[in-house]
Amino acid sequence: MVSKKMQEALNKQLNAELYSSYLYLSMSAYFQSVNLAGFANWMRVQAQEELVHAMKFYDYVNESGGRVTLGPVEGPQAEWKSPLDAFEHTYRHEQTVTGLINHLVDLAIEQKDHATNNFLQWFVSEQVEEEASANDIVQKLKLVGDAGGGMFMVDQELGQRVFTMPAAPAE
Ligand code: FEO
């Protein structure tokens, strides 16, 4: 059973994952508005993945005898200066989320809560991927600069991303 303090921290992270989903959906809408359908697709898939992250916290709190409580989700930014600006924001945001996950791990260790620590390890690995994929696109966009042809190619590439529901963990 999770402690009250851990329950509160996990509920807070559930909210942060919902905010991430909201932020990326807002970026998807921005890309749609500037006719970059591939970028919009990538962000839409990202928003769906963040919902999966949120539900992992939801399920874990319930399964570990805690009580899920949902707070208000902050409204995200709506406009960005360029695709690079949006992806630099994404990269910074993922670094922030990594910090939040690391703090949760610190709390689990402090409380000798091995189950929660074990649950969080999936997120520790996931954050390495999240940061790497955002940074990869930042670097590509820096290379492309203002070249329309290059932007078209990146848009085509990001349009290939598909959402796949992660397999349920073994019981
Ligand atoms: Fe839920 Fe993008 O980390």
TrEMBL record:
InterPro entries: Ferritin (IPR001519), Ferritin-like (IPR012347), Ferritin-like_diiron (IPR009040), Ferritin-like_SF (IPR009078), Ferritin_DPS_dom (IPR008331), Ferritin_prok (IPR041719)
CDD domains associated with the record: Nonheme_Ferritin
EC nos: 1.16.3.2
UniProt record, GO biological process: intracellular iron ion homeostasis; iron ion transport
Ranges of residues in domain Ferritin-like diiron: 1-145
Enzyme class: oxidoreductase
Pfam family, one: Ferritin
Reaction catalysed by this enzyme: 4 Fe(2+) + O2 + 6 H2O = 4 iron(III) oxide-hydroxide + 12 H(+)
Known function: Iron-storage protein.
Protein name: Ferritin
Natural source organism: candidate division TA06 bacterium SM23_40
Lineage, opening ranks: Bacteria, Bacteria division TA06
